[in-house]
Amino acid sequence: MLKLSEVCLTRNSNHLLTDISLTLPAGEITVLLGPNGAGKSTLLGLLAGLQSPDSGCVHLKQQSISEIDPPLRARFLAMYTQQQPLNFPFRVAEVVALGCYPLMLSPDLLASRVAACLAQFELQALAQRDYTSLSGGEQQRVQVARVLAQVGAECQVLLLDEPVSEMDLKYQQLLLQHIRAVADSGVAVCCVLHDLNLAAQVADQVVLLQQGEVIEVGAVATVMTAAKLSQLYGAAVTQVVSDPWPVFVSGP
To answer: Which of 50, 126, 171, 208 could make an SS bond with 45 (beta carbons 3.0 to 4.6 A apart)?
Structure first.
């Protein structure tokens, strides 16, 4: 379980996050929703220990996340970020293997894990391709496979920042299936999504963020209503389906 308590973060006199308290339960998927600039990516960075709050604390099982040595933290926590600046001509299989580095696997186990992760995202045919020659959507699948390769037996938290932004519908659904499987194994998953319908489909817990503050936290049925989402985004949102999960469209 990952927990934030009264976290505040200010940069250049700008209040990026204000008094945020939040728990990411083990075995559940938490989705962060909010307009651009709401603080979603900043919050993920704090959860990952990439920066420290000005006040408040972030704890992973009673230990401050920033006090865990980075090599050990990489075994406990895996993160996909929006920016993936990889410009070297690595083969796809080599990129996925980078995710396994913290796990310290034997050569045989490494090869087996890489092969499994390539298969999960249907990347076998691209395994020997130069990563830089791939399309944006293909690169995103490779990077997500790399991050999921890091999710070993000791992993407790998986953080994902807009992991489906360049994927087509097939691979969006495939990724959601794998995220659910990771959560079902007991990992706390936190994901930033802009697609309301994907969020409603996958989330156990939804967090509404606006201007660096948590507006509401709760289950999909409670938090993701047309009225609340319209207010959050400053745009008309209409719910057109309610079962098995809500489906939304923008506009009246």
So the answer is: 50
Please name the amino acid found at residue 227.
A
Output the domain CATH number for residue 28.
3.40.50.300
Residue 25: give the domain boundaries.
2-250
3-state secondary structure of 12: coil
Can you tell me the distance from the alpha carbon of 66 to that of 34, in angstroms, rounded to the nearest whole number? 26
The tally of domains found in the chain comes to 1
Q: How far apart are CA 91 and CA 210, in angstroms?
A: 40
Per-residue model confidence (pLDDT) at position 2: 93
Torsion of the alpha carbons at 240, 245, 249 and 251, rounded to the nearest 10: 60
Closest CA to 25 of 246, 221, 252, 217: 217
Distance (Å, whole) CA 93 – CA 127: 5
pLDDT band at 207 (very low <50, low <70, confident <90, very high): very high
| Helices (H), ranges, 55-135 | 70-76, 92-98, 107-120
Residue 235 to residue 227: CA distance in whole angstroms? 10
Cα separations in angstroms, 185 against 38, 59, 87, 103, 180: 30, 21, 34, 17, 9
pTM listed for this prediction: 0.95
Four-residue CA torsion sign, 89, 116, 41, 156: negative
Q: Where are the beta strands (DSSP E) in 37-134?
A: 55-60, 63-64, 77-80
How many whole angstroms separate alpha carbon 146 and alpha carbon 142?
Answer: 6
Quote the strand ranges of the chain, DSSP E.
Answer: 2-11, 14-24, 29-33, 55-60, 63-64, 77-80, 157-161, 188-192, 205-210, 213-218, 237-241, 247-250
